[in-house]
Amino acid sequence: MSFFFPQGTFFGLDAMTTSLQSFSVAENVTADNLANVNTPGASRQQVDFNEATPIVGSPFMATHVYGTVGEGAIIGQIQRIHSDSYDALFRGASSSQNYFAAQQQQLQAIQATLGDPNAGINTQYANFQASIQQLVAQGPGGQSAAVRQSVLTQAQALATSLNNAANAITSQKAQTLQQGAALVTAANGILDQIAALNGQIRASTAVGDSPNTFSDQRDHLIDQLSQYLSTQTSIQSDGSTLVTVNGQALVNDTIAYHLAPPVVGQAANGTPTFKINFQTTSAAAASQAGIPLGSGQLAALQDLYNNKLSSYGTQLDQFASSVANEVNRITTGGYDQNGQPGTPLFQPIVSSLPITAGNIQVGITDPAMLPVALANTDAGTLVQPLNSANNTIDTSAPIDGNTSFANPPAADVPGPGGTNGALTITVDGQTQTFNYQTNGTVAGANATSVNQFITNFNAGHYGVTASFDATSQRIVFARDPSNEDLVLRGNQQANASTPGFTISDTPNAGGGAGILSALGATGINGVQQNGTNAFAANDNGGSNAMVKMFQANVGVPALETQSAAAATAGTAITVALPAGNNNIQVGQVLTIDAQPGGVGPQENVVVSGINVNPASGIESVTFTPADNHAANFTIASAQVQTLTQFYGQTITQVGLDAQTAITGTNTQTQLASNIDQVRQSISGINADEETQNLIKYQNAYQAAARTINVLDSLLNTVITSLGVP
Amino acid sequence: MRIATSTIYNNQTQQIDTLEATYQQQGQELSSGKALNVPSDNPTVIAQDLAVRADSAVSTQIGNNLANLNNELTTVDGALSSLTNVVQSARQLAVSAASDAITPAQQKIIATQVDQLLQEAVGLANTQYGGKYVFTGTEVASSVPPVQTNGSPISNVTAQANDVVQTQELPGGQQIVSNVTLKQAFNFGSSDGSPDVFQVLINLRDTLAKGQVVDYSQQQVNLAGTAINPAVTTVANLLAGAAPQILATPLQPDASGNVSINIATAGNTNGVNVTFLPTDTIANVIAKINAAAGPIGVTASFNAKTQRISLTGTGTFQVNDVPSAGSGTASNFTKAFDLTNQADVVNDVSTQLGDIDHTLQVTLNARSVVGSTLQSAQTLQNTESAQVLNDTKVQSNLEDADIAKVVADFSATQTALQAAYGTTTRLEQKSLFDYVQ
Prior knowledge:
By secondary structure, chain A is of the alpha+beta class.
């Protein structure tokens, strides 16, 4: 027995209509995908077809048409194919990529501005050295006005190249701020858009819609935002996205927290720092450190400003101050061609400010006023020949009892014999003492022969150098600014180096007639060098001293001072530096000295902290010595490298930073591209695939339409062929 | 793996970008020949590169300086060589003149020749190199040559010069002496008071020209560091035991405490006696000699500069120590003042040979000093050239591109780039759409 249950006449047609509509929608979705094949941030949308649920009716229906056969195809959902987890990875890589790219751009500009190695400061400094070397040789042309002029020209070229580099760095720092402000404006615009989209997405989600396009737009905007700074996101239950930077909200639901343009604040140690705050940050909190930006272009600018450009600028300033200090020490210690005491070769452009890379110029315009002649003992009048009659001094032979001498001290015997006492050498207003003992039988005798006297005297670094002139058989004492130790410099402090000097002799009681008597003099005054005396203004001692200085390790930056307070071993001490010394940095090595006379040991200390008084601008350094030092101990930058080496280090740093940025850009671009590729493999639109879908849905649509046609003809048969004619 | 359409384009674009960047970098290396164009190209060697460049610039300058010094010293050596010839010629003339066979007329002719040599010597003292007078120490030049003559015929020579020996400091602490002074070359203003080249020639010329004979101290008579001032120094100051000791050989008075000498000539064989008291200054001594011996044709003078006494006669004369009135012994005046026993032309000229030989020795010493300086300057110049060469080599190692490698890389990049272009166009022209009917 079979049962027949009547079916709805239009059942098939109904099902096909649903399908037609579905396929039409699917074609539209495919068309939308194809249209957005090049739209950044677009995710492909996929149509999920469902079989339409059969109409549930009375029992038995399930085994018959109703309840068994579906009502055609309907669209379950239009799905946005997207993986949020890859978004976070991509944004991280994109932040880094933009960070390095921004740095690369700026650092390559800095490299181009500095011009090394083909041109630039190093070249100018080398040219300056070469011009001094030429002056040493007193080239042809008589009194070498041309060579002197060339020294001035090269010195000015060096100063100008320092000025240019400093200006370039300053303007690049300003540009960093401008660029930062522009980026902040762009970022704020994005924040607003994200907030607006959050609102729309929340509204759509609330009514059960799937806001695929809005989501795409929002995610893409967050991608863009991550170019500027590091972002973190979390999707809220209402569909909106919370966007944060380092835990601080940028967009929460529909509220955008705008960033303020970058400002330059002051770090605790007084150095200016680039920082970005929220616009809502109160004025009181403006002194805070600012938002930690993580990565991205804004972070790149911040790092450039705080750690790269500022550091390069400081190092250039240190270089300039040290070059000026070392060269000026020699020129102010000499005489010019007119016999006038020398003036500093390098001077500040703005005289009230200390010399920096941007504030340095050549202060001498007249070649004749270039002070390179140093004071000498006048061999003709102040020091007599040492030798008696026609004898020649053997400078390695004992002085005592030496009959080659005109006035030898008594011969050495244990106890008496020889001479001993102290020479007082006055240079730059500082009196220094050299204790001598000629009797070779006394332990520690330091002047038993002429050679030993000269060696030991010169090792005292008194700013005066002794030498033996074999032709005239005389000892010549000459002012030598390149032979001054840190004790003298520290004690001298800001006092200008001076060209004159005196030496006086105080023999000990019972110590004989004194060493100067044996050397044929009673007291010595450095005689200024000009055309009117035996040692004329063409003396090239100053340029010789500069050649020595170029080869020598010098303290960078220039620092010569004393501590009024005593220091205790193992206890940190903070010393305020003289005004104008604003270049000391944490980690720098300082040499601290005993007072003259050897109260305490010399040692090197590392600066552990610096502090700048905001009102006076006075910089203080903190360090911990290993030994005790009495009050008024001297402080100077440790002499660890030549100026060329120091500048080389600076350029190495620039090069390394640029290289890191270039390598970082390449790596991070590759990384971002790889992650994006994975992301795109999930959500990206493939035109071929969409074309296939298009054909697929078209065919299905055609089939459905054809089916309707068949069903229609079935109905037609019923309507036209059955029933009453 | 699904490939999104945009991924294809992005990938291709990125690959082409990367290849083009490499292509550009390699192109720059090839066109500049350098792999180190900016510090970031190789930060690890940039500091060394900067140091080498600076060293190279300085070494080049030192090399130029040394080349210049070489030229200058060669000029100096040439002048000293000519001076040696001058002095040797003078010596030959003196030797030929020191003969009784030479008539006074011939002596005058020889004197003219000596005068020529004198002028030649003055010219040599004013030798210039590059506009700079080479023997003047560090003295600033004025518009006139530094060595000037006075009188005609030349009676003395003055110089605006000093004895400063200049040294040039080279990096690395070497020093090189860069000049020769008038004192070193011409014995001018010598420490020991011996006559300079000019004075020797003037003395020789005068001796020959005037037909006069001179009996004079063969050496300066003072000790180094002391001096006889004719207006101040007295006979007593010169006596043995006086402090400070001035004469190398102190004056021993005769038994009366006085000093007497006898001056005899061919016309007056008994001669005249002159007695000096301890209180007499040297100026008084000279005046007494002139007063007593002037009438017989002998005059005396004391040269404070050379610290010598000279007695000049128109013919042969003799100076002897004699006891003063009432004394049994004689003093040692002739020994203390280093006078010869007899003064005649032949003897006089012969005596001057010693001075000539001394100046010749001084000049030869100066030449040997210049020679050794020249040698060391040349060695240093070679060293500096080698240094510059080495710097260039190091700089090349640090900076230069390995052309062969870069060329290979360049063509590899080019090939890759061409492949990328080809791939891109092919990938991009294929689409399923092409087949949709």
